[in-house]
Amino acid sequence: MNSKIEKQKQIFSLLNHKFGNLLDDQELPLNGPLEEESVAVQPADQDRLINKVYNFYKSIIQNINGGLITLDLDGEITFVNRTAAGMLGYQVEELHGASVDNLFGDDPDSRKCLRAVFLPGKRFDDREVTFRQKDGKTKIVGLSASPIHDENNKFDGIVLLFRDLTEIRHLKMQIERMERLALLGELSAGIAHEIRNPLAGIKASAQILEESFGVDDFRYQIVGRIVREVDKANLLLKEFFKFARPTKPKLKFHDIEMIIDGMYLLLAPKMQKRNIQFLTEFGDDVPQAYVDEGQLEQVFLNLFLNAIDAMPAGGNLKISTCKKRLRILDNEKDRMEVESDELNYVIVEISDSGQGIGPDNLKKIFNPFFTTKVEGLGLGLSICSRLIEENSGKIDVASQPDKGTTFVVALPSFVHN
């Protein structure tokens, strides 16, 4: 046969037919003296040994915690293990004989990596590329490639090993964002403090001038305007200090669902006025979270108000909770002084059926002073992100225009510093 995939199928079919009915509980007599007469192996014993070796390596390949794909020099997939097919959303049979070109993403780095795979003798480890799944979505993977040689040591194919890096990449982006916000907060806090001093002087001087003018004097109105504008600036600085230097959290175990119910009672009249339905889906056996209750109330209040503003014509505000084990990065592990790489978190999803957020704005919503509201300061979500960070939690968002927005808050249910 000319097709390598057909040759492979024929080999596997032959092995399964020849060795499929052999018993695995029989052992070869390998503990006797190594003499010519004693090591003579019967054909049935040879078949049984080959079958065990075949099944052993087959089990390893199919069950390793990573995807394995082999290619011929034309880029045709000759073998794929179940892990690889599952990660990409395919059945194994769908990938046999397919072109590997269909799996690599369209970004320049992924296409460059695809070309490098077919260079004779080329090897690389943990190259970060994107793979396309069956549903069209992309997945970030760490790819390693090695050449395959035939019995004459000629370049005959490629073996690809890859592992899913999507979650790790996402966690790294969250950590980088939090570190960037923390640095910006420390820098800006000093600047804001210096601004408050001259503002106080301006206000005091304006109030003295205000007292020297009569109520009917137009200068009285102008000076009064100066005082009001200074008060607005001071209010902005106070809000900014909440982001830049939040108070140290007073950590205790709290029932998240009780905090959510408290926020609902506070906002229920406003929701009824806006014709917004408040829906809850609290999971079973959700543990208490180790957080600062006041800071968490501030986070939920801000997220609920944003959801209400996103539904001017009414809609649904749904809150769901569950327990989940999440992976933490090494720098988080050192900061928390915990041993495990995975810890229990309380997951809170806050979903609205409102206007949604465009992809360009979605990348900026946690940045200080970014807002799409006419009267907004743009600090609400920045403060939420900072407070969640102070409580060793995580916050993320998913949204599509005209399809609503979901904020996901992960709160630790373990004791941490």
Figure out the total of helices. 12
Please state roughly what percent of the residues sit in beta strands, choosing from under 5%, 5-15%, 15-25%, 25-35%, 35-45% or over 45%: 15-25%
Radius of gyration: 32 Å
**Residue share in helix:** 40-55%
Count of folded domains: 3
The H/E string reads HHEEHHHEEEHHEHEEHEHEHHEE
Can you tell me the CATH superfamily of the largest domain?
Answer: PAS domain
Low-confidence stretches: 17-41
Shape: elongated
Sheet having the most strands:
5 strands, antiparallel
Structural class: alpha+beta
Q: Would you mind describing this structure in some detail?
A:
By secondary structure, this protein is of the alpha+beta class. The chain folds into 3 domains: 4-164, Beta-Lactamase; 169-244; 252-412, 2-Layer Sandwich (Heat Shock Protein 90). The chain has helices at 4-19, 43-63, 82-88, 92-95, 108-117, 166-212, 218-244, 256-273, 293-309, 330-336, 359-362, 380-390, and strands spanning 67-71, 77-80, 124-132, 138-149, 155-164, 252-254, 276-282, 289-291, 315-327, 342-352, 394-400, 404-412. Strand 4 and strand 5 (155-164) form a beta hairpin. The chain is elongated, with a radius of gyration of 32 Å.
